Amino acid sequence: MEVLRRDARHVVRRALRMARDWKTIVRSRDERGDDKLEKEIKYIRSEVRSTVEANRTLTSFSQIREVIQESNDRVDLIMHYRIPYPRLHYIIDGIRESQHVDASNCMNIDGNILDVPVPHGSS
Length: 123
Prior knowledge:
- By secondary structure, the protein is mostly helical.
- The chain has five helices and two strands.
- The protein has helices at residues 2-20, 22-27, 34-55, 61-81, 95-99, and strands spanning 89-90, 106-107.
- It has a two-stranded parallel sheet.
- The longest helix is centred in the middle third of the chain and has 22 residues, at 34-55.
- It is globular and about 45 Å long.
- Mean pLDDT is 81; it is low at 117-123.
């Protein structure tokens, strides 16, 4: 369990360091306004805080390891694309229902964000 604690602390510190250095990280590639950067920094910090709180009670070794891996992957994607928000998935109307896609984070081919989630696993 000590290894998991160390790994969890590492990913949290890594994400908070990223938030601290966000202005430098982003400005090396593009120009965003200070207001937008401040909102992104607050978003990153709130996501770290909510993820830690949501997973504080996990006791299963495999669940904890999975959350740590997902968090590391998310930090890697944020650093690579310089976008802290979850990725939107593009889908074509009509395919969503047949493939059981969760539309809570999707947009259609026209670029309109879909706001009606489709449940997973329904046949």
